[in-house]
Protein 1
Amino acid sequence: MAGKRWRRVLPPVSAIAGVLLIWQALCAALDIPAWLLPDPWSIALHMAEEAELLFGHVAFTLGLALRGMLLGVAAGVICAFVFHALPAVRAAFSPLLVASQNIPLIALGPLLMIWFGVGILPKLILLVLVCFFPVAWSMLAGLGRSEPQLREYLAMIGASRVQTFFRLELPASLPYFFAGLKLTATYSFLTAMVAEWLGSGRGIGYFLVLQYKGFKTTGVFASIFCIVACSLVLYGLAVLAESWVLGRLRMGGSRVKGGGGA
Amino acid sequence: MTEYTGVAGTPGMAERADGSGGDAWILETVSVSKRYVRDGRSLHVLDRVSLGVREGEFVSVVGPSGSGKSTLFRLIGGVERPDEGIIRIAGRDATGRRGLISYMPQQPSLFPWLTVRQNIASALVIAGIDRKKAAALAAEWLDRIGLGDTAGAYPDELSGGMKQRVSFLRALLMPRDVMCLDEPFAALDALTRTRMQAWLLEQWEAHRRTVLLVTHSIEEAILLSDRIYVLGGTPTAVRREIPVPLPRPRRPDVWNDPAFGRLREDILALLGRSDRRDD
């Protein structure tokens, strides 16, 4: 068991280590100046020196991302329920929603700032707009895709619409919900960071802007590492939640079929 | 309350308007017809089908594949409405009304995220039994039919035959007047199927519930039933109603009885008249 796990972890870890080593070697061999491309070791040292500062900014952004994600996922689930229950509403609003996803963030952000100021509200709105869509869309697909045999059985024994929803459609849609949640988790930290560009005095996005405006390339790389790490952590948490819930519902791994009967 | 124009050899509430006594029709379809429109063409599936099941009676409907047997069940279950005719359950008009029958489909249709016990209890809750009582009832009966070990197992851990036993028990425990079994063993292999027929016979002899079985297996129908309706033709109509003269309680080896063979020949001949697609 331990050996198997080791064999799965080893290739990606050694690949990353290899890239870092080559990077380090190139920087040393070609004598690249730090303002152009800092070597990984200097970045690591810089991160250690500025750990407290970085941590403060990262924590702020993470807090923003988590709150936005929570609200966005809640909005997405509610939207999926409403659209599923009322096909007329779905038909009317789904083109609008799809269109809303094509508004560039870079244009929407300044508008939200004009309307709602520079506080947390416009940033949360931006996050909700980005986070709710993947959850809403994939869960909506899941709600309509439950096993026809089980649907027929419930109809034959006289289950009500509400009973059918809670006993079949909702559990069968959970694999789809988690697919959406994983997408959302990937986007949420990046979006929170972009939101901070639009006017903030804190957060890793703000810090990143400060660094590159001051040509502190090492600081820019330090921020990038923090951002990638946080996005991965959020994604990892979503994956853990997925395997825990689906495992408990016997839908884990290869069995994900939206409620297979036999 | 509704006028009934009798069709020869079919049940009619008119003669038994009081609905009392062991002879009462629990389930009755009166001259039920159904058409579908598919690709702009009208498809006549059922033509004035009249049949009935009395209290505590086991009745089978036999017909070739694709003869609208499942449509008949959807009408009885109230999932669809007939174009003509009435369906009565326990003497009341049940046309288009759901939640009056218990149902065992061809596929086990167990919920993969619920244990065996939860699967049964969940169906009982839908039928109006309170949560605690449903769970207790499910556990008690699983023990009683020798499936106590599987109570905490999930459906994907059970064999096909076991799943159908659970599915049968789920139907048996529903507090409804009539059990509708829709080709319950058609998806099983021949050996398991034979075993399950014997098992169902034993279970029915023990509980004597009112059952309507749809099957395309003549042997299965004869082994289990008190009466058989043979369907055939296009659109599907009742060709004949045949009482099964074999005594109760019946044993699974009743097919050795000469009466069994004669009945089998009769039904085969009836079915052969329309087409040769029966098994």
Protein 2
Amino acid sequence: MFSLSRKDLVALVVFSAVVLTMPIWLSPLGAAYPGLMQKFAIYAIFAIGFNILFGLTGYLSFGHAAFIGVGSYTTVWSFKLLTMDIVPAMIFAIITTGVFALVIGYFSLRRTGIYFSILTLAFAQMCYSLAYSVLTPITNGETGLLLARDDPRYLDAMLGAQANVAGLPQPTLFGNSVTGYTGFYLCAVVLIIAFFVSQKIFASPFGMALRGIKSNQTRMNYTGFNTKPYMLAAFVISGMFAGLAGGLLSITDPLAGAERMKWTESGNVVLMTILGGVGTLFGPVIGAWLIKYFENIFSAINTNMLNNFFSFLPDGVQSFVVTVLSKFVGEGWHLTLGLMFVLIVVFLPGGLVEGFQRLTARLKRRKAVPDGATSVQPAE
Amino acid sequence: MNVFLAQLLNGLDKGGAYALIALGLTLVFGTLGVVNFAHGALFMLGCFCAVTFRYLITLETVTVDPEKLSPWGAPVEVRTPLVQNWFGDFGAVLVDYSVPISILLAIPTMLIIGIAMERGIIKHFYKRTHAEQILVTFGLAIVLQEIVKSFFGANPVPQPIPTDLRGAADIGVWFGMAPHVLTYPWWRLIYLLFSGLVIGGVFAFLQFTTFGMVVRAGMADRETVGLMGIDIDRRFTIVFGLAAVVAGVAGVMYTPLLAPNYHLGMDFLVLSFVVVVVGGMGSLPGAVAAGFLLGILQSFASMTEVKSLIPGIDQVIIYLVAVIILLVRPRGLMGRRGIMES
């Protein structure tokens, strides 16, 4: 059950090393804050899960933000009602989102193509609007669901583990606080497990069936394959990943708001996956990291920093360059994001992973040419 | 009954906006086969054409009038719009009617923007997958809205209704009811008529002109039309420009009803995609019908009576209807078989 092919094992080891050494290699890039790295890990989980659906089956869901929201709310409710321990919270988040995904998937998967996309979008938007209006008792509306000191926490109370500290209780893992670097390593470990699961799915017969559905669903049906349960399973698994990501968001910052369910969040995860490379193992992770990196780093740059950076230029030129560049950073970082998407889709349609593969292939070919006697052209 | 009529009318103007956006979206999809996520941004650009026009026309000269003194004894600054200096009273009318007049600015601007967009980027995406089209147009939409944001700021820019057209029309009287029973704001009525006019214009253009005939033929079978020696790509480029113009003028006229901000396009885009899909991808009458239908349903769902019966219905009605229609009628109201299903 835990065995992997040699290639996958190498990939997993490399991936784990990269994730766990994040604090080291991100510090020269100026992103080695636990809070930010947690986001990297969480959104990578989200994108990996999305890729299981979109990458393997080709069904483009525009409603995955709903699952992140459901996961967040469930986690906070678990904190409020049961215990501050994160393990039950995560389990509940995954289960609830799974049930949610089952219902939404059951209806949405009756249609394909853009009709499927719009159905998932419609369901997600309904969740979003309801979270703001009718479901306010559960979601606490615009304020967002918060922890309070006098929450019941029945399980904690029963075990007598009610911490009597001042201020709000913090989420714990078996009694240990999960803030700062502990929180990051928690997310990192979950990310590695998620990556492993996605590797297993990619390599399994189940994964092969999903790929078959992507390339030709009709033919799959004709060969006597009932594709429905496979699709539904993929949808639910992918939803569970999103729920887990939502749960982790609430664990690292115990607050759940409806804005996480907005359709722009669903759009974001689509962009992450496509940017990195759809249907590849590493692609979604890279895409998620890049987007989150740009969001946090570019949006933090301000005019003063630009002025300092370009202070070597003559005054007029400096102010011109700074005025132009300041449109692309800080508040305007979305402009950079948009341009980046357009450029990448135009010039690198398969995402960054494909670009990387093309690059290595070209380098290999160039190396092979000098001793290229092996590749003899066949006679005409 | 009157309440019913009033809600019907309320829904119609919003439905008109949905229908206009969805019409352009379907036109682009039907001709070029491109899923254009930047279409909402075009609507937003139309809104800002009106904002720009008003800005230009209200450029003022500030003169200090030594004769007049404020109650504190300081000279009063007199601001007069330049156009009023040049044209007198006619200039004042120009300023007052800036919103409808800016359609004249919006048409060429949107045509140029649309054609530039199609030739610059979308041209390269005919043969790509829908996911890539969505991504590139989504990126384009972000770029457009950020550019608008950097010029006009993030706050909504309200546009005034011309003074003569403020207030409400007593439509009840026209139908023989007592006065003040059924009133409807003039501008909404105008928007409704305007959207009907534009929709009718687009259909007439496609139905009764040679150009429209070629375009319709190209929608049905692009290759064959190409084989007949017709440069179908050029016509389709113009169709894209036309769709941009429709979205743009829809935006211009909508500004007095809803103060435009830079992300307005995205908000309308999601709804209009739902509209297009409910109407059936690639079906122009479907898009128009679904636009009005959803607008009216939304308006009915916001009635207090309905809301107290089913709480929260006003928030979700559009999506709920979309889900039901798609589950009952797989290709939307009037969709054709085999379009966008894989």
